[in-house]
Write a structure and sequence with these properties.
The relative contact order is 0.14. The chain has an eight-stranded mixed β-sheet with strand order 4-3-2-1-5-8-7-6, with helices on both faces. Helices cover 36% and strands 14% of the residues. The protein has six helices and eight strands.
Length: 233
C-alpha cells in the first residue's frame, strides 16, 4: 500500500477512503485484542502490547495508555523502520520486538503479554517441556529467549533466535510473544502457551512425581495432523 502521510496537526493520515476504512477497522481489532488480554488475565495494567500489519503500515498500541481508554482517535501507526506515520501518541516501548517479527516472518499480527504462568516458566527452564501435544500449534518445543532489558534491540535479537521455526516463544523473566496471520490467531496462540505453562507447573508441583513428556517426534506428528484441522473453506 502507499505510505500514509501524517497530518501534523491532527495526527491523521492523507490516505484514500477505502484504505482509511481498512485502517480504522484494523485499529478497532487491535484495541479489542488488547482489551481481551486484560480480560483474560494475561496482562495487568498497561503491560503487554498488541500490533497488526497492513501492507507496510503497523498499527500498535501506544505506551502507557490503559486499553479501556483507547478510542478511534488514539490510532497509532508506524512504518517498518519504526517511523511514526499515524497518530500522536508514543508507540509501545516494545516496538523493536514487533517490528523484528514483521521483518523476519510473514506475521500479520503480534501479541506480547506478561502472563503469570508463562513468565514463571521462563524463570525455570530454557524450553517449555513437552507436556502437551499443542506445542505443535506453535511449531514445536517452545524456547525461552534469554533476558534482556525491555524495549532494546538485544531483546528483539534474543527473541528472534528463540522464534526460529516457531510462532511463539517465552521471554526470560518477562513474558510471552506470539504471532499469526490474524489477531485472533496470535491471541489464541498466546492463550494456548499460557495454558501449557500452567499445565506443566501444575503437574510438576505434585510431590514425588514428574510429569510424563512427549517426544519431539510425537509433537511433529501432531503438527502434520493440525494442518488439516478445522473446517474447509
Amino acid at each position: 500500500m502507499a505510505e500514509p502521510r501524517r497530518n501534523a496537526k491532527e495526527g491523521r493520515s492523507d490516505v484514500g477512503e477505502s484504505v482509511a476504512e481498512d485502517v480504522a477497522r484494523l485499529w478497532a481489532e487491535v484495541v479489542a485484542t488488547a482489551r481481551r488480554t486484560v480480560d483474560d488475565g494475561l496482562v495487568v495494567g498497561t503491560s503487554g502490547n498488541v500490533s497488526a500489519r497492513l501492507g507496510d503500515l503497523v498499527l500498535v498500541t501506544p505506551s502507557g495508555v490503559p486499553y479501556d481508554r483507547l478510542t478511534p482517535a488514539d490510532l497509532t501507526g508506524v512504518d517498518l523502520t519504526g517511523r511514526q506515520v499515524l497518530g500522536t501518541l508514543v508507540p509501545t516501548s516494545e516496538l523493536p520486538m514487533h517490528l523484528a517479527v514483521y521483518r523476519a516472518t510473514d506475521a500479520r499480527a503480534v501479541v506480547h503479554t506478561h502472563a503469570v504462568h508463562a513468565t514463571a516458566v521462563s524463570t525455570l527452564v530454557p524450553e517449555l517441556p513437552l507436556v502437551h501435544y499443542m506445542a505443535a500449534a506453535l511449531g514445536g518445543p517452545v524456547r525461552v529467549a534469554p533476558y534482556a532489558t525491555y524495549g532494546t534491540g538485544e531483546l528483539a535479537e534474543n527473541m528472534l533466535r528463540a522464534l526460529a521455526g516457531r510462532s511463539g516463544c517465552l521471554l526470560g523473566n518477562h513474558g510471552t510473544i506470539t504471532y499469526g496471520a490474524t489477531l485472533d490467531q496470535a491471541f489464541d496462540r498466546t492463550a494456548q502457551l499460557e495454558w501449557m505453562c500452567r499445565l506443566w507447573l501444575t503437574a510438576s508441583s505434585v510431590p514425588g512425581l514428574s510429569p510424563s513428556l512427549l517426544t519431539e517426534a510425537q509433537v511433529a506428528e501432531v503438527g502434520e495432523r493440525l494442518k488439516g484441522y478445522g473446517q474447509r473453506r
